[in-house]
């Protein structure tokens, strides 16, 4: 394997190990987060309160040597509350820019569906351009700026559901489920034993495995991961099949194909390989398609959801060998 790719795989494996000192279970959410971070994309995170959404991002930031901020979205949140604003300085008789919380590396945007669309748009624009413009001056954000936007599944649509076109800007959707019984027992024991997961972070027992500047350098290594033409055709066919499925009103667009390709390469690297396998693609299909596919209302009422649709699509398309 190429030397830089080796280094990347090594860092990913170390990161998983450090994160596991804090986060119990949640293996797929951890991997999906790493995939988004190392492909320079953004993620939607769905899960009820208390499943460690915030703690996961905090732990990843610490492990990867990155800055971290959080914004709670509310109905009265203004675009300037997130991107920043010019404030008049009386002493100096001039306006000074006060940067908003987007000036960070990892940003957790909690309950994004609670803020009006103007504020959501400001965030989405910052995500896409990695810069913000305030009073005609443009400021660059971190090249590694990564948004983790959370949604609570109970009030899923919320007051201001994200429009489909905007959801498409998120590479994938991470579902964080409640821990299973064994994991919850483990969590309960740690809390009783004065070893709460978050205290591993504050005690300093979680190591920082790299610096933020390493991230951009290692990211380039993903270009070395081979995707055979049959596999490219395979993932194109999967995305195209969403547009023809009976239960689907609007299928996934070409951004889904691109996301699936990039994410599959990162998933291969995460598993120490310099080539993509059909399984890399298959595990990513649901997280990548879920928020991009609009189901027909009549099917939605019957409780149809993405899981069986993904299963049917994967069953129908021959797996390349
Ligand atoms: N899988 C888990 N691993 C470790 N701690 C967990 C886990 N699930 C819940 N917790 C505990 O629950 C707390 C709440 O987590 P938090 O990140 O604030 O949740 P959320 O952001 O999803 O509402 C954590 O600080 C931790 O003590
Ligand atoms: Mg939280």
Could you walk me through the main structural features you see in this protein, from its secondary elements to its overall organization?
The chain is α/β, with parallel strands linked by helices and 321 residues long. The chain folds into 2 domains: 3-223, Rossmann fold, CATH 3.40.50.300; 225-321, Helicase, Ruva Protein, domain 3. The chain is 45% helix and 15% strand. A 5-stranded parallel β-sheet has the order 2-5-8-1-9. Strands 3-4 form a two-stranded antiparallel ribbon. The longest helix is centred in the N-terminal third of the chain and has 17 residues, at 3-19. It is globular, with a radius of gyration of 20 Å. The model has no long low-confidence stretch (mean pLDDT 91). Bound molecules: adenosine-5'-diphosphate and magnesium ion (MG). Magnesium ion is lined by residues 53-54, 110.
* Largest sheet features: 5 strands, parallel
- CATH fold title of the largest domain: Rossmann fold
CATH C-level name of the largest domain: Alpha Beta
Average residue-wise pLDDT = 91
> Percent of residues in beta strands?
15-25%
CATH architecture of the largest domain: 3-Layer(aba) Sandwich
* DSSP summary: helix tally: 14
Give the bound compounds: adenosine-5'-diphosphate, magnesium ion
- Give the termini distance in whole angstroms: 21 Å
| CATH homology superfamily name of the largest domain | P-loop containing nucleotide triphosphate hydrolases
Question: Which sequence of strands runs across the widest sheet?
Answer: 2-5-8-1-9
Parts with pLDDT < 50 across at least 5 consecutive residues? none
Count up the domains: 2
């Amino acid at each position: 394997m190429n030397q830089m790719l080796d280094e990347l795989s090594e860092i990913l494996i170390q990161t998983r190990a450090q994160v596991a000192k804090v986060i119990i279970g949640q293996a797929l959410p951890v991997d999906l987060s790493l995939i988004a971070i190392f492909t320079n994309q953004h993620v939607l995170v769905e899960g009820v309160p208390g499943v460690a959404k915030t703690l996961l991002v905090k732990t990843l930031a610490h492990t990867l040597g990155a800055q971290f901020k959080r914004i709670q979205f509310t109905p009265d949140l203004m675009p300037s509350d997130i991107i920043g604003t010019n404030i008049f300085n009386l002493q100096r008789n001039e306006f000074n820019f006060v940067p908003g919380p987007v000036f960070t590396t990892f940003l957790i945007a909690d309950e994004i569906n609670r803020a009006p669309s103007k504020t959501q748009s400001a965030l989405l624009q910052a995500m896409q351009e990695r810069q913000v413009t305030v009073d005609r001056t443009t400021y660059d954000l971190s090249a590694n700026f990564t948004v983790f936007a959370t949604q609570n599944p109970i009030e899923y649509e919320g007051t201001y559901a994200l429009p489909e076109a905007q959801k498409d800007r998120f590479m994938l959707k991470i579902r964080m489920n409640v821990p299973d019984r064994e994991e919850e027992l483990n969590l309960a024991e740690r809390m009783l034993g004065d070893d709460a997961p978050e205290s591993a972070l504050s005690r300093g027992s979680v190591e920082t495995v790299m610096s933020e500047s390493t991230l951009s350098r290692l990211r380039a290594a993903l270009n070395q991961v081979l995707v055979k033409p049959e596999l490219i055709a395979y993932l194109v066919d999967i995305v195209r099949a969403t547009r023809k499925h009976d239960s689907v009103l609007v299928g996934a667009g070409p951004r889904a194909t691109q996301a699936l390709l990039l994410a599959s390469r990162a998933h291969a690297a995460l598993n120490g390989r310099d080539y993509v396998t059909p399984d890399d693609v298959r595990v990513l299909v649901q997280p990548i398609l879920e928020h991009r596919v609009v189901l027909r209302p009549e099917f939605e009422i019957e409780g149809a959801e993405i899981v069986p649709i993904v299963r049917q699509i994967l069953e129908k398309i021959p797996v390349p060998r």
